[in-house]
Amino acid sequence: MSFQQASGSGQLRVPASEMPKGLPPETWRLICSAVAFVIGFGLGLPSLWQGMHGLVGAGSIGTVTSFTAGGLALVAFVFWYVWSARFPVNRWRRRLHPARRVLDVIGLSLTHAGITVMGLLGTFWILSQAFVDLTLDRFAGAAIVGAGCAIALYLVVDSAYTMSTRRLSELLGLFVLTGALASMLSTSEPLWWQSHFSSLGGIDDVSGFAFNITLLIAGVVIITLAGYLTHDLSRWAGRAQVERWRLQVIRIAFIGLGALLAALAFLPVSQFFLAHNIVAYSMVGFFMVLVLGVPLLFPTLSRAFSVVCWVTLGSLTLALIMYLGVGYLNLTAFELLAVGAVFAWLIMFVSSVEAAIEPDARQVGQHITTEQTTSDDEGDTGPLGAASKDPVPEPHPA
Question: Is the pTM of this model over 0.70?
Answer without folding.
Answer: yes
